[in-house]
Amino acid sequence: MPISFVGASSSELASNHATVPAHLAGDLILILSVRTTSTSALTTPSGYSVLYKPLSLLAYRFATEDSAESLVTITNTQRSVVLVYRGVDPASMVSGSFFYSRSSRSTLVLSNIPQHEPRASCIVAMFVSASSTAAASVTTQLSDFNIRATNTSGVAADLFADSFAGRSIDLFTPTTSSYAFLALVPADHETLPVVARDSFAGIVGTPLISWNSSWTPSPAFTSVTPTLSSLSSVSNGGIFNYYHGGHPPVTDCVVRAVVDVRAVKAYCRAGVTARVNTSENTQYRGELNTGATSGFPERGVFTIRRVRGGSTVTLASASVTLEVKQYALEFSVVGDLLALSVDGVEVLTYVDPDPISSAGNAGILCNNYYSAEDVTVSAFEVENLAATTERQRSRLMLTPW
Predict the structure, then answer these.
(1) Are 42 and 77 in contact (CB under 8 A)?
(2) Under a CB-based contact definition with an 8 Å cutoff, are residues 220 and 277 in contact?
(3) Surface-to-core class of residue 37, CB atoms within 10 Å of its CB (0-12 exposed, 13-18 middle, 19+ buried)
(4) Whole-angstrom Cα distance, residue 52 to residue 54?
(5) What are phi and psi of 386, to 5 degrees?
(6) Cα–Cα separations (whole angstroms), residue 268 to 98, 131, 240, 311
(7) Pairwise pLDDT comparison (115 vs 149), residue with the higher score
(8) Which backbone phi and psi does 234 adopt, to 5 degrees?
(9) Assign residue 281 a region: left if phi > 0, alpha if psi is -120 to 50, beta otherwise?
(10) Residue 122 CA from chain centroid, whole number
(11) Full-prediction pTM beyond 0.70?
(12) Between the CA of residue 252 and those of 36, 195, 275, 382, 400, what are the distances in Å?
């Protein structure tokens, strides 16, 4: 079943409640809610699962019966937007999500959300004003979206797969807002085996290993403990290289993450790793590096690197003029073929004549030379390609086969 829009609502200064449109059993209900007059924590409505909390609330549920509710109780909420969709896969409804709490950032780069990811069928955008006086509103650029609900409380909109092409940047009026982007997966998609993911959507300042015990440092490349940062990301001043131990070692995989360049400064790097084997001290890296001199930090480089026995070799590189924006990285490691894509465009490929053959884990790396949040990492995901079909492989643009 393809995904279809069912209904939307925007509740204006509704005290402790959000209005839910009519729906059928199995429909996905999404709620983005915020309190404008204080930072009092919002409660999670009964039966809902949390994608983000606490300053704002992004929650969802799959309806268990037709029109089971028209109002949901969210203690302390004052503004909410709600969207309902049919045909979403309950097992893996979101292939990627970005959530921003009480942000005044006015430029949103749509290529950062995984619209090029083959499972994504519908991009959902939700805005709620976090101001007690100003309304959430969007400029004409967002008119390419289907505006599903809008008033002084917030805006709810979506964009379906046939309209992804050519979309890059959207703006909204820079009043203080909470907003969320999600990429929804249809129920009839071929399941791709995601073996690990992390949204990093916890309390800012929480150590990464306290947030998720699956993370483990690669000792030879780690000097600091990463912590959760703003905008659902992870970062810290100094170097860290952590792998996700919550999945069996894999050989062929795709690793995804978003690198957010918040300040263009020299000597910074961030990216993802694959085939991490600590006993052999090996790993592959797909990275974004800022300029190597303080005078020209914008002269960045995308690189593919190999580490063996602690020795690092650059296998391929491509120059880029860096901007303050998010870069969606996808690093494919299949046999001896390595490929790095950025914002859905392949920028590097390399056939390794001396490949790392051992299976391993995947992870993230980051190095901030100046400040803890100049560069951050978010939206981590790993797919094990060992069980994929030929059609899935072609959709992932991994060649040759």
Answers:
(1) yes
(2) no
(3) exposed
(4) 7
(5) -60, -30
(6) 23, 35, 12, 19
(7) 149
(8) -135, 145
(9) left
(10) 15
(11) no
(12) 47, 12, 8, 10, 14
